[in-house]
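quick one, 107 residues, struct below
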Amino acid sequence: NTSKNIWSEGKISLDPSAVFTGKTVIGSGTVIEQYAQVSGLVSIGKNCQIKKGAIVSNSVILDNTIIGEGVRIENTVAGKKCRIEPHSTINNGAIGDSTVITRYSKL
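---
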């Protein structure tokens, strides 16, 4: 982890095993779980959850969104209150507010 490249607003929870490369902005109340990987330019909103083993790269995740276990999301904007269920893959996408992406989906 390179803390000089992580900016946070308020209290956040980062598991020590999570890996950050690039520059990341994280909103208050967000939790990043074990073995998650955040790379490139990433903005994560308030009260989000990045679950175990998820990979977020060059993306914007808006407030109150859950990125499930093992999800891979790259070059994507995810709206507010979205739920990306486990083991889904999203590349070069935009997901509107309150969208649910079911497990194992590939977009």
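The chain has a mean pLDDT of 95.
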